[in-house]
């Protein structure tokens, strides 16, 4: 009877482990497909035509080196688990940072283009010839985005549709204002030069206030970054300097409770500081 119970328990455990491995494999496949697609879209939107087959080994080697370094500093193999979790969460954050940085650079270049376009319209030039001339003298990413819009028009896409495609690639408020102004002017006519000058002044004022807000909240953002990284760095350093004392934190149940409390309070502190520092303009 006892042998039968043991066999049933062993079979149940084996089935549970097999099911968990299957779920983990499917979850990893979905994560890998999503990251591959998102990376490809971000690189294409940034006009960085890199080969994913060459990019993956470099990223994997960098992650492996980082995990080995952390394991050596911690003195225990399971020290790589937090790093592994961080590496899994890092790609979406890095891709989002790349997209936001490109959008900020685009918005910073947009007022000069709009003001120059208004001046060209006052001089008697058409919208599309003036755009071609200004885009040729601009720098990325603005020249890349408007250049792609002009190439789409040469291939037969309508002006309104090309503007909508530009708005989809750069979903910022500044780009939305310019696209709306150009679209309305193309449909109804009117004094587009005056409208563009007003939009350029609005964009400059908005960027001025955004710069002031970023300067005033820079200390809070730096505090959140230091709060996020300093406890982990100190834990690794102290694990190498005082392994006996830190063993109580890693190997006892009350040490695990302390670690859980530290992670919870640190997460709440980072969340609160970021909410306070995130001011919409």
UniProtKB/TrEMBL annotation:
<dbReference type="Pfam" id="PF00482">
    <property type="entry name" value="T2SSF"/>
</dbReference>
<feature type="transmembrane region" description="Helical">
    <location>
        <begin position="77"/>
        <end position="95"/>
    </location>
</feature>
<keyword id="KW-1133">Transmembrane helix</keyword>
<feature type="transmembrane region" description="Helical">
    <location>
        <begin position="253"/>
        <end position="273"/>
    </location>
</feature>
<keyword id="KW-0812">Transmembrane</keyword>
<dbReference type="InterPro" id="IPR042094">
    <property type="entry name" value="T2SS_GspF_sf"/>
</dbReference>
<protein>
    <submittedName>
        <fullName>Tight adherence protein B</fullName>
    </submittedName>
</protein>
<feature type="domain" description="Type II secretion system protein GspF">
    <location>
        <begin position="116"/>
        <end position="238"/>
    </location>
</feature>
<feature type="transmembrane region" description="Helical">
    <location>
        <begin position="45"/>
        <end position="71"/>
    </location>
</feature>
<feature type="transmembrane region" description="Helical">
    <location>
        <begin position="6"/>
        <end position="24"/>
    </location>
</feature>
<dbReference type="InterPro" id="IPR018076">
    <property type="entry name" value="T2SS_GspF_dom"/>
</dbReference>
<keyword id="KW-0472">Membrane</keyword>
<keyword id="KW-1003">Cell membrane</keyword>
<feature type="transmembrane region" description="Helical">
    <location>
        <begin position="222"/>
        <end position="241"/>
    </location>
</feature>
<dbReference type="GO" id="GO:0005886">
    <property type="term" value="C:plasma membrane"/>
</dbReference>
